[in-house]
Amino acid sequence: MPDYKILPNSLEAEQALLGCILLDNEIQRDILSEIQPDDFYSEAHRSIFASMQTIFMKSIPVDFVTLTNQLEVEKKLETVGGIDYISFLTNSVPSAANFQHYLEIVKDASARRHLISTSQKIINNTFESTNGDDAMRYAEKEIFNLSQKDMKTDLEAVGKPGGAMTNLLKTMSELAENKGKLRGIATGYKEFDEITNGLQNSDLIILAARPGVGKTSFAMNVAVHAATELNKKVAVFSLEMAREQLMARSLSSVSKVELKKILTGDISNDEWKRVWTAEKKLSNSGIYIDPTAGISPFEVRSKCQKLKLTEGLDMVVIDYLTLMNLNSANDKKESYRQENRNQEVTQITKTLKQMAKELNVPVLLLAQLNRGPDLRPDHRPILADLRESGSIEQDADIVMFLYNPAKYNDTNIEDEPGTVYLNIAKHRNGSTGEIKLKWVGEYTTYLNPNDKIKAEITN
Predict the structure, then answer these.
(1) What is the pLDDT of residues 235-253, one digit of tens each?
(2) Of 308, 361, 384, 407, which residue is least crowded by CB atoms under 10 Å?
(3) H/E/C letters for each residue in 404-449?
(4) Which whole-number Å values give the CA distances from 132 to 126, 143, 332, 333, in the listed order?
(5) How far apart are CA 222 and CA 10, in angstroms?
């Protein structure tokens, strides 16, 4: 049985690694930039490594002379073992050839110690907490932060082999060889995908409209397409509808059986076949639905972190912003209602944008428009119609509006019945524009203008 009172460590590997730094100037940069003093178990080794970093930052080679001098200046030489111990480190390895092996041993032991420390913090917090949900969120956050510890980026020359420019040219070459291939997640709406190149990782995308225009249907059409056609993992947070309501809409959209028939069960044998085919398609997809009302952005982030670690995550849909709270309605200890809702929304959108970057996925956030479009002769939404906060526009990478002219009797004689406009009003990394879609209300489905209804049955 292992002795659990002694934390994981390898003093021999730590000594060998410090010896390699003293032996070879060429590998000093690789080691000193890869780990930190707290990755060493021995307090003396932590002090020695910190002094090595100080010397290196002065653009001075780290060797026996410079190290002993720095330790003397810092009055740490005797506490780390004196000149004799530094001399021992210098002679602890015959060469620095195996430094990568020693480095991995030190990093592995450090990772396990950090895991033990984090676990202890979680245990202590669980004992002290009076709310099980709080304790669970704290544990998820700590484990996720620990898993991200080594996922760090550095300053990098754009021309470095395998760097940004190389990756960009590789992507361009792949796109050139595969005409029509998108960099982001395809939505299934051709004109939109041409303008945006798909939904891009780390983007916060706002979809806004007046009530009853079909925001939820459009978002679910995109989510279902990503999950069923592209095998993506999609997290859907529905603050207004229950899981069953969303699935009824999705089942209608995929099966092309009218929603009212699905809700009443008045379905023919042929329609039942289409329903079962659609059910199988949806059940096998990577759609995950959370119907928590009044959820906070911190809870959304915590749940998405957990899903990304356990199942994977490619996209997030949140329906919708107005129903979110800065703090969970169930959080008795921290719950409060800010006097200024604008400030609250600002914090929510900033947190969701940070989440999109942190998880490296597109986040599609639905939002309600104010009454501006209803009051103007021109009923088309504009950016000023976003409710509650200018930060929505500021934090978003894309802002788009759904506009249904039939709602205002604004129908153009040239447009077919059911024409709805999707206006990309802001696009941080591309062009804007207006796109025509076709709304088929009985199936809660948006189509491309020239698409025909397909009711396919798998035998």
Answers:
(1) 999 888 888 888 889 999 9
(2) 384
(3) CHHHHCCCCCCCCCCEEEEEEEEECCCCCEEEEEEEEHHHCEEECC
(4) 8, 17, 12, 12
(5) 51
Q: Which residue has the tokens 């049955």?
A: 457
pTM above 0.85, yes or no: no
Contact 189, 448 (CB under 8 A): yes
Phi, psi of 147 (to 5 degrees): -70, -25
In the numeric block, the tokens 């995950």 are attached to 288
Per-residue pLDDT at 388: 62
Determine contact, residues 62/21, Cβ cutoff 8 Å: yes
Report the first-to-last Cα separation within the chain, whole angstroms: 58
Q: Which of 203, 195, 268, 192 is nearest to 225 (CA)?
A: 192
Partners of 402 in beta bridges: 422
Domains of the chain: 11-107 (1.10.860.10), 185-447 (3.40.50.300)
Helix (H) / strand (E) containing 205: strand 204-209
Q: How far apart are CA 373 and CA 210, in angstroms?
A: 8
Query: Which among 302, 369, 347 has a CA at the least distance from the CA of 142?
Result: 302
Enzyme catalytic residues: 240
- Read off the tokens for 45: 């080794």
Q: Are 64 and 71 in contact (CB under 8 A)?
A: no
